[in-house]
Structure formats: structure tokens, C-alpha cells
Specification:
Radius of gyration: 13 Å
Order of helices and strands: EEEEEEEEE
Strand order of the largest sheet: 2-5-9-8
Oligomer: single chain
Strand content: over 45%
Shape: globular
Length: 91
């Protein structure tokens, strides 16, 4: 499990290395008091010479009413806050 503590759009936990990073398991997000990310905010939480795999589960705080997705690129992984999949009963 990787605990991603987020204090702001520019202050958050990050794995930053020069080697290969393999993602797996759970990505658990915790927010600092008073901070709420908005839809469209992205957090590059892993950067290395290569990044592979992906978290199987993303756990968001109950206060976040949006969804989130992880995008894995060749050398980084990004958590993005996205609009809820179902809004007003429609997808």
C-alpha cells in the first residue's frame, strides 16, 4: 500500500527515483485539513527511469465526491481527480 498524503496541488507525497518503479496494491489518499482537490487536479506521485503496473485499488477520503484515475506513463504515474462517473443518475 502507498499512502499518498496531499497537502495542496503542489505539496504531496511522491516517489522520485532514478530506477524502475513497479506499482501494485492499494493507493490510499489522505488530505491535509482544509485542502480539497478540485476536478482536473493531477498529482504525479511516482517518477523514475520507468514506471509499470498500476494500483489495483484507489481509496479516497469520504469528503471527495469526485472520482479519481491513475494514468501510468513510461516514466511517471499520475493521480487525476475526475468528475463523478454518475451525476444525477446519468453516466
Amino acid at each position: 500500500m502507498f499512502d499518498l498524503d496531499i497537502a495542496s496541488a503542489t505539496a504531496f507525497d511522491r516517489i522520485d527515483g532514478s530506477g524502475a518503479i513497479t506499482l501494485d496494491g492499494t493507493l490510499a489518499v489522505t488530505l491535509s485539513p482544509g485542502y480539497m482537490p478540485t476536478v482536473g487536479t493531477a498529482f504525479e506521485f511516482a517518477v523514475g527511469s520507468s514506471v509499470s503496473g498500476r494500483p489495483h485499488t484507489i481509496v479516497l477520503p469520504a469528503a471527495i465526491t469526485a472520482d479519481a484515475r491513475v494514468e501510468v506513463l513510461a516514466d511517471r504515474a499520475r493521480l487525476s481527480i475526475t468528475p463523478p462517473m454518475f451525476a444525477d443518475g446519468f453516466e
